[in-house]
Amino acid sequence: MLEIICLIWLWRVNGKHAIERGQNPKKYRALTLGLWFGLEFTGTFVGAWLMQLLNAGDNAFYGAYVFGIIGAAIGGFTSYWVAKKAPMGNYRPEDQPNGWNNQSGGWNQSQNGWDNQQNGWNQNQNSWDNQQNGWNQNQNVWNNQQNVWEQPQQEPDCLFAPATIHIIEEEGGYTGGQDAFFLNGRPICSLRPGSEYTFTTYAKKNVLTIGRPTPELSDETTALKFIAGEKGQIEIHACAGRLLPGKFSNYTA
Fold it and tell me: Which among 8, 32, 133, 167 is placed 20 to 30 Å from 15, CA to CA?
């Protein structure tokens, strides 16, 4: 039972690491099962053979079992290392949540921060809008059915004309390394020092991260949130695994 639990856990972890590296998780999950069971059976066979050579008698079964466990452990560690060090790719899972629509995202929780019950512009108990407030009754212009803060059409998630994003990986920091960039949780590119990359996006609200889709440290050196304008020009600088917010620029045509 413990072996099955460990295998399921490793199967999920390796799939997660593969997605973070922009790889299809199915390949690495299959590799996990193959290495685990393959080396386990190999270890069991080798253990039984050695026990027979040593004339272990009744202890032959235990020796084969121990060698099988050792083989499974080696296979599990190997699959974990391979998934962890997988090369950067461009795989994009269809159901991957982005930085604007997950329960942890400060920009867009399940009830979007632009229009939810906790929003300071439209709470049922808001001092600007309750039945007892003489300044703001149900017909008050601050909160009626025509209020622009409550009309989703006023804050579309997509742009009619795409914005251009230019990423520049500056020289210095380290030699031979490269940084991976993600936009809204999806892999975009991997740059070496002195290189750059340009692409377009129709998303209005964006989160660009470096190193991984959802970095553990949520500061401006690892995650940069910005709102793109139609035909806008965004320039982002990075160096040695860190974003440079001081050089960030965002122009709207």
Answer: 167
